[in-house]
Amino acid sequence: VDSMTQVVFDYVAKVSEKASAIDAPDPAGKGEVETLLAQTADSIHYGEIDAAEATETYTADAQRILQEAAE
To answer: How far apart are CA 34 and CA 49, in angstroms?
Structure first.
């Protein structure tokens, strides 16, 4: 190994001591669930639905979206 390559290897070894693993990728359907959350929050804000009903509806719809996206 030449000296420049050794410098690169040493650098990578040093950085590897401090680096952490990358985050897991977002699940399929994440964007649709985020849009649903914003729509649900707006519906609560404008009095179209109460928080309890919104929670049930949002949870069921979000789970369905994630399940369908995973297939």
So the answer is: 18
CA gyration radius, the chain: 23
Residues 67 and 61: their CA atoms lie apart, in Å, by 10
**Mind listing the pLDDT tens digit for each residue in 37-48?**
999 999 999 999
DSSP state of 1: -
- Whole-model pTM: value is 0.69
Distance of CA 45 to the CA centre of its chain: 25
Helix, strand and coil in the chain, % to nearest 5: 75, 0, 25
Is 26 buried (19+), middle (13-18) or exposed (0-12) by CB count in 10 A? exposed
Distance separating alpha carbons of residues 26 and 10, to the nearest angstrom: 33
